[in-house]
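Technical annex, item 7. During the second reporting period the consortium partners agreed on a shared format for inverse folding records so that results from different sites could be compared directly. Each record opens with the tokenized structure and is followed by the designed sequence. A conforming record, contributed by the partner at site C, is shown below for reference.
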């Protein structure tokens, strides 16, 4: 089961993402409504991916990504863009994010978008391959560390 941190100030939107992902029985979702709350949670718990709203009230997107990566350097991050936007603003294109979600979300594609984001390098380190499997699936594949030089990042 993949651990996902969803960071969005809109509790209804975050709860919808949580419900959709947890209903698959492939994801365990934790929700935070502010950047500070997300950073606090990520400093205590490891996650496989973060889904981060691009416009938090307490952190800029750049600062949120930077601080989250200080807690977990190889943490994949997906960014939720505002309604109607399809790409990061030019200033944000250099952030090391692994995926972009546009509002309105197309729910049937959410799982595949997460799977795709998990295949992209983080901080220049290619991820270990790991298929997403439901609980109790035969022969689950353990996730090896992203980098042999960072054994503390093993999940």
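Designed sequence (site C submission):
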């Amino acid at each position: 089961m993949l651990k996902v941190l969803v960071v969005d100030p809109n509790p209804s939107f975050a709860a919808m993402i949580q419900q959709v992902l947890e209903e698959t029985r492939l994801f365990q979702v934790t929700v935070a409504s502010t950047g500070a709350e997300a950073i606090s949670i990520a400093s205590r718990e490891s996650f496989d991916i973060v889904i981060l709203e691009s416009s938090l009230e307490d952190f800029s997107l750049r600062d949120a990504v930077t601080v989250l990566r200080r807690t977990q350097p190889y943490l994949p991050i997906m960014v939720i863009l505002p309604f109607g936007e399809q790409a990061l603003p030019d200033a944000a294109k250099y952030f090391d994010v692994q995926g972009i979600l546009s509002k309105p979300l197309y729910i049937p594609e959410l799982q595949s978008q997460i799977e795709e984001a998990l295949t992209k390098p983080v901080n220049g380190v290619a991820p270990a391959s790991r298929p997403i499997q439901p609980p109790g699936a035969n022969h689950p594949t353990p996730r090896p560390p992203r980098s042999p030089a960072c054994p503390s990042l093993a999940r």
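The domain at 2-153 is CATH 3.40.50.2300 (Rossmann fold). Residues 11-23 form the longest helix (13 residues). All partners now use this format for quarterly exchanges.
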